[in-house]
Amino acid sequence: MTDFVGRNRLWARLNTAVAHHADHLATPIAVVDLDAFDANAADLARRAAGKPVRVASKSLRVPALIERALAHPGFAGVLAYTLREALVLHERGVSDDIVVAYPTVDRGALVDLVQSPAAAAAVTLMVDDVAHLDVVDSVRSSKAVQVRIALDVDAGLRLGNQHVGPKRSPLYDASAVAELARTVVARDGFRLVGVMTYEGQVAGVPDDVPTQRARSLVVRRLKQASVAQLDVRRRAIVEALRPVADLEFFNAGGSGSVESTVADPSVTEVAAGSGLLVPGLFDHYQSFAPRPAAFFGLRVSRKPSPTLATVHGGGFVASGAAGDDRLPLPWAPPGLHLTGLEGAGEVQTPLTGHPAAMLAVGDLVWFRHAKSGELFEHVNRVHLVSGEEIVETVPSYRGLGHAH
After folding, report:
1. Is pLDDT above 50 for 277?
2. DSSP of 323-366, one letter per residue?
3. N or C: which end of the chain has fewer CB within 10 A?
4. Nearest Cα residue to 363 out of 56, 89, 63, 27
């Protein structure tokens, strides 16, 4: 839906859905287009070619959307981003197969985990250091409840002394992975069940940006080199771990790398979340056609001039290295732009472009957040839209009021 006609239709459709709602909705109005969401889910399952897709909850942060994704054929399990979140999802019955994607040092959440055999059987912790095991042991007096463990292995591209990709784990070589695996297996109260290698330099970097042709070519070549290097290294890791433990899963990848990830025979499942909502940073990939599904609406609050329209609020800047690509995108009506001086403001956001002249005070402008999931940290409620109707209003994590 990157064409102007489609975005104008979206503008009219979302405006109609809001107008039909009985309440006067306060802005920002967060909506998810279920038609696009479901189409994206089907596309991710197709791209995964029969391997299970584990839902990356960090990219959704709305329990109802996580459950909706899990209800689609081809999806199984959750990749959570904190242990507290994983415990809440298990308690709510969202899933009984939850892998925490990052090591945890949350002692309060660990106490709750080791005191619940049911939760401990459903939740897998990620480690990359013996110190992470020590933290678990520091909160328990008994090791009767086994804690499920997965190893987080750095999946960056090594070119000489250069490292391209997320700086995640000290584990890299198969020998180091096997050494930690043997430590986990030999330690009472722990069970080694999986491995994760997240190649963010492949999954999370656009590679077909129209205004950056030369850079996109370099990115594609780096991705090809990374995939080839990872294929060799994953095989070595699998071979090194084979005599140590009988693993349940080898997780890898993300929405931008599904095809190359599942093509690796070492990988048993792929993680994906951003591909369900398709935020602004996921617009320019060769691997899939974007269908934006998450939006937030702001109302025009003033007209500084006939060619400017200012909406109230909107300063929802995405995490990561600061830059224009972290700013929200004015999306519908099409043709609007942030100003270079003010950008997206906490209290107001002035917009330029030809549609600004036709917008009146009170009109809605629909934006897209740059990163998936982060939008819903700014709202308590998310409105699910099908066609021209809000069919359900559901709480975000923030709306549930739990720490995550």
Report:
1. yes
2. SGGGSPEEEESTT-EE-TTT-S-SSEEEEESGGGGT--TT-EEE
3. N
4. 27
DSSP labels, 270-315: EEESHHHH--GGGS--SS------EEEEEEEEE-SSTT-EEEE---
203, 256 Cβ separation under 8 angstroms? yes
Put simply, whether the predicted model's pTM sits higher than 0.70 gets the answer yes
CA-CA distance, 53 to 269, in Å (whole number)?
Answer: 6
**Residue 63, CB-side half-sphere exposure with 13 Å CA sphere:** 21
190-197 and 389-395: which strand pairing?
Answer: unpaired
CB atoms within 10 A of CB 131: 10
pLDDT band at 207; cut points 50, 70, 90: low
8 A C-beta contact, residue 92 and residue 110? no
- Strand duo 269-272 + 29-33: pairing: unpaired
| Vertex 76 angle, CA 75 and 79, to 5° | 105
Distance in angstroms (rounded) separating the CA atoms of residues 56 and 20? 32
HEC-encoded secondary structure of 246-276: CCCEEEECCHHHHHHHHCCCCCCEEEECHHH
| Predicted pLDDT at 224 | 81
Q: What is the DSSP letter of 257?
A: G
Cβ atoms of 85 and 404 within 8 Å: the answer is yes
Q: Which of 101, 60, 105, 52 is nearest to 79 (CA)?
A: 101
Single-letter residue type at 269: E
How confident is the model over 126-183, as pLDDT tens digits? Answer: 999 999 999 999 999 999 999 999 999 988 787 777 777 778 898 999 999 999 999 9
Task: Copy the structure tokens of residue 223.
Answer: 């991705």
Q: Give residue for tokens 């994607």.
A: 101
Q: What band does 1 get if pLDDT is binned at 50, 70 and 90?
A: very low
Which amino acid, one-letter code, is at 83? L
- Please give the Cα distance from 104 to 123 (Å, whole number): 12
Angle between helices 34-48 and 63-70 (to 10 degrees): 50
Confidence of residue 109 (pLDDT cuts 50, 70, 90): very high
**Looking up tokens 């250091």, which residue turns up?**
129
